[in-house]
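Progress report, Aim 2. The chain analyzed during this reporting quarter is listed below.
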Amino acid sequence: MAGSEVPNYGIPNWMAVDPGIALPPHNIVAQMESNIIYGLSQSIKEQVTLENGAVQQSNFHDYEVFRMADVPNVEVKVMPQGGIPRAIGEMGLPPTAGAVANAVRALNGADVTQMPFTPARVVAAMKGYQISPFASGRRRSKGDPRRKNPARVFL
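Predicted structure tokens for the chain:
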């Protein structure tokens, strides 16, 4: 990527958060930005692979995470509604993968249920198959009764 080009994953680049009373608001913004970036990285890139029962990644040089060049612009709007301060913590992390999966489904109808949502998994989901993270090449078709509950589909 050249200069100030920012990747566009087709995902809305904003988030609104209600912390009750915002104490301090700039820390809340930083926390939510990091949650979103970490969630996108988990959804799109991060993966541990095994070969003969041994983990193949030894450190960050061979375990893909989002780098600064991969990070889209993220705008967080703190919208305090008053009341008592609420815990912020990892509030922005859990819904991120679901938002990415919903964006993929809205775009092409594919139900991706295994993270990371790699191009191969998206294409397989578009064809009605699930690619197992554990057994390369084994797939289940749309007609498989175990596909009725995608959360239970692990080959």
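The chain has two domains: 9-96, 110-155. The domain at 9-96 is CATH 3.30.365.10 (Aldehyde Oxidoreductase; domain 4). These observations will guide the mutagenesis work planned for the next reporting period.
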